[in-house]
Design brief:
alpha/beta, Rossmann fold, N-(1-d-carboxylethyl)-l-norvaline Dehydrogenase, domain 2, 2 domains, 14% strand, globular, binds 3-hydroxybutanoyl-coenzyme A
Length: 283
């Protein structure tokens, strides 16, 4: 199960990061977006990130050019047909992901491995939209992908040992520390992180402290790089809300239930950094 050519479906914040680290590790990468505008934006994100690394003295200009030369953009799913590994990083929408995998299954060579980057959906259910259930798993990266060292490698009860070993090795080759997690909603990290973040929103909702004091408390009291409300804005409140809904549905425990304030902020279009307003104002 040699991996030389990697396809990434979705070139948003997560997808662009996955494309960047894969190309940096020497893989040929095909990035797919739904239209030229989104593709240009995604590839632009990678250019900018690499240029920043050059300006900070972390990368040579020639290395940057070599990395970029390994990346090809496409708006066609068929452009991924000869990839050895296809990683999906589209929005957290089960129907969208299942339809996408079903289509990819007919287009990409049968021996290729499919991975989802879902943060909360049941991987087994996504696998069932394809006929390659033994070659289907999850590589869960963290935001910002070029910086965060962890990847959760999630196998389903149908994933073969060969597939698991191949993607575990891939995660190491792209410079990450992989950990093995079971196919439970939220895996290991979100299972622990999401209830904490939701609780921080409840603290704020109940007036336990100002948003600044809640964040400063956790940053200085526990050494976290970001306070919980700041981190919610960074992840995106829509993503937070969606993940909480999925996890609540899975576990039926109140600690996973999205707080009322989170729901209202999402309905009001206050999604965090990406919209310029969430718990903080970024305008
Ligand atoms: N791409 C590439 N590099 C980046 C980057 C990005 N998007 N953002 C920051 N960096 C780099 C900077 O270049 C800098 O590198 P240097 O020290 O070598 O010069 C380094 O990271 C630190 O960046 P900054 O000095 O600009 O800012 P900070 O020190 O505040 O760090 C941060 C920014 C890395 C985002 C840090 O605040 C952090 O670790 N925050 C927590 C992030 C986190 O918890 N992520 C997980 C979210 S949960 C998730 O993704 C799961 C999902 O399923 C919900």
């Amino acid at each position: 199960m040699g991996i030389a050519r990697v396809g990434v479906v979705g070139c948003g914040q997560m997808g662009a990061g996955i494309v960047e680290i894969s190309a940096k590790a020497g893989y040929e990468v095909v990035a797919r977006e739904v239209n030229e505008e989104l593709l240009d934006r995604g590839l632009g994100r990678i250019q900018k990130s690499l240029s920043k690394a050059v300006s900070r003295g972390k990368l040579e200009e020639a290395e940057k050019e070599a990395i970029l030369s390994r990346i090809t953009g496409t708006t066609e799913l068929a452009g991924l047909s000869d990839c050895d590994l296809v990683i999906e990083a589209v929005p957290e929408d089960k129907e969208l992901k299942m339809a996408l995998f079903a289509e990819l299954d007919g287009l990409v060579k049968p021996e290729a491995i499919f991975c989802t980057n879902t943060s909360s959906l049941v991987v087994t259910e996504l696998a069932m939209s394809t006929k390659r259930v033994d070659r289907f798993a999850c590589l869960h990266f963290f935001n910002p992908v070029p910086v965060m060292k962890l990847v959760e490698v999630v196998r389903t009860i149908l994933t073969s040992d060969e597939t698991f070993d191949a993607i575990f090795d891939f995660a190491k080759k792209v410079g990450k520390t992989p950990i093995a997690a079971k196919d439970n909603s939220g895996f290991i990290v979100n299972r622990l992180l999401i209830p904490y973040l939701l609780d921080a929103i409840r603290c704020y909702e109940q007036g336990l402290g100002s948003r600044e004091d809640i964040d400063t408390g956790m940053k200085l009291g526990c050494g976290h790089p970001m306070g919980p409300l700041e981190l919610c804005d960074f992840i995106g409140l829509d993503t937070m809300y969606f993940v909480a809904e999925v996890m609540f549905d899975e576990y039926r425990e109140p600690r996973f239930a999205p707080p009322g304030l989170l729901k209202r902020m999402v309905k009001a279009g206050q999604l965090g950094r990406k919209t310029g307003k969430g718990f903080y104002d970024y305008s």
